[in-house]
Amino acid sequence: MGVGWFAAIIIGGLAGWLAGKLMDMRFGIFMNIIIGIVGAVLANAIFDSANIHVAGGWLGYLVQGFVGSCILLFVAKLVRR
């Protein structure tokens, strides 16, 4: 079951927003969506290479987006210093 584009934008935005709250970095809604979607792609690649399987559907996409977004924001904090 794939996630449609509209759902990917909504879920990616939510994942980016949640990660921004956790990492104490605030961006606008557009950047949250971008960070969430890119984070999901990043986490998907990391999880696949480590042979870790996450639940499918929107929940799996949200978890992957959240984890990947946290990784991206952590790297951004390191670069900002």
UniProtKB/TrEMBL annotation:
It is found in: Cell membrane. Its main location: membrane. The chain crosses the membrane at residues 6-22, 29-47, 59-79. It comes from the Bacteria. InterPro entries: Transgly_assoc. It is a multi-pass membrane protein. GO terms for cellular component: plasma membrane. The lineage of its organism: Bacteria, Pseudomonadati, Pseudomonadota, Alphaproteobacteria, Hyphomicrobiales. Keywords: Cell membrane, Membrane, Transmembrane, Transmembrane helix. The keyword Ion transport does not apply. Belongs to the UPF0410 family. This is GlsB/YeaQ/YmgE family stress response membrane protein. The keyword Signal does not apply.
